[in-house]
Amino acid sequence: MAGLIALGIGLGAEKLGRTISEKRLERKEKKAIAQHEATYGSSSSAPPPPMTTRERQSKTNKKRQDAQRELDAARQGQSSAPQYERRRSVSMERVSEDEPPPPSYDDVVRQDGKRT
């Protein structure tokens, strides 16, 4: 029972700490935006105002979702041909080229035996 109480207090403290740090971060961002406005005003040649954490997180999440979507699409296109067919086609391309195929293991072993 005491463990459950301690666990509940720990989780509550963690949530409270997260809330406090979020509020602190929001105040810091508001201060940075206000400072940017005071320095540059509404000049068109001024650098863009600092991004807020939420904007940064949403941008990161959007990039992550786009990358995941592209990866899923690539996997769908890749899985249309079975793995063994792709390997066979690569080996067939190697045979169809003008260069001779590499020597077999048995041929190499026989040649090494003759040298000694």
TrEMBL record:
Cite the record's Basic and acidic residues compositional bias ranges.
53-73, 84-97, 107-116
Q: Where is this region: Disordered?
A: 27-116
So which domain of life are we looking at?
Eukaryota
The name this protein carries in UniProt is Uncharacterized protein
Question: What is the species of this protein?
Answer: Decorospora gaudefroyi
